[in-house]
Amino acid sequence: MSKKKSRNCWPSILFIEKKLKNEDIDNQVVFCLDEDSQLKCLYIQTNFQADWFKNYDTIVHIDGTFKLNVENYLLYVLLVQDSNCHGRPVAYCLMKNETNENLEFFYKTFVEYNNVEFVKLVMVDKDLSNLYLIPNFFPNSVTLLCVFHVVKYLKSVVGKLVASQCLKNDFMESIHGMIYALNEQEYNDNYTELRERAKKFKDFLSYFEKNWHSCQKLWVRYFRQKLPTLGTHTNNHLESYNNNIKISIKPQSHLTECI
């Protein structure tokens, strides 16, 4: 994004801030600028969104989505589930890029304006930055990986192996068995089966052991049996919400239109 475009956004963004504050003084709009005084992050939370979070703060879903504006700011959404298991967005953050610094701004700002003491679970995809940062801002919560993203990611990794489709299907069968294992023995049986099936793919097995087998609590079903998941193991509520946003907001929109 050019500096000219960024500067031209300011009058509209300031107008939006004023408009939101006029509607409700408790609406929160927080800016973060870079060293060139260009917009880096924009946090928005309305008062009714804050109330949603107060009422439904057990499990939090977090994810980002792209292609909502020509300036290429991505939108991070923090969402909860209401009593009918419907997704309710409780905070937004538009950020120039997905850096640790920008994510920290989002979480720090959210924590500043909301009591996160009673958040028990935070659901994310396998983004290492999120996995490391979240415990710092949601200290009483357990971080879980969205099972949909786990399957999608591992299927992508397996798909790149130089192996027959039949063998790849066998690998995924073992992986599915691990994901949905209801006890430790079931997990170990499927893990042993994967190691046998993939014994000629040592690099893949090393990768799996380092990045997945070592953090089973994040993605294996039987570790979640006593957690208040509300029957949810994915970020599908948030994915659905993001898809609806993309129907309303076209990639050709400017940042101020997106806001």
From TrEMBL:
**InterPro entries associated with the record:** Zinc_finger_SWIM, ZSWIM1-3_RNaseH-like
Q: Which residues form a coiled coil?
A: none
In this protein, which residues make up the domain named ZSWIM1/3 RNaseH-like? 19-142
- Tell me the organism's taxonomic lineage: Eukaryota, Metazoa, Spiralia, Gnathifera, Rotifera
Please state the span of the N-terminal signal peptide per the UniProt entry. none
The protein depicted here goes by the name Zinc finger SWIM domain-containing 3-like
Q: What is the species of this protein?
A: Brachionus plicatilis (Marine rotifer)
Q: Name one Pfam family in it.
A: ZSWIM1-3_RNaseH-like
Look up the domain of life of the source.
Eukaryota
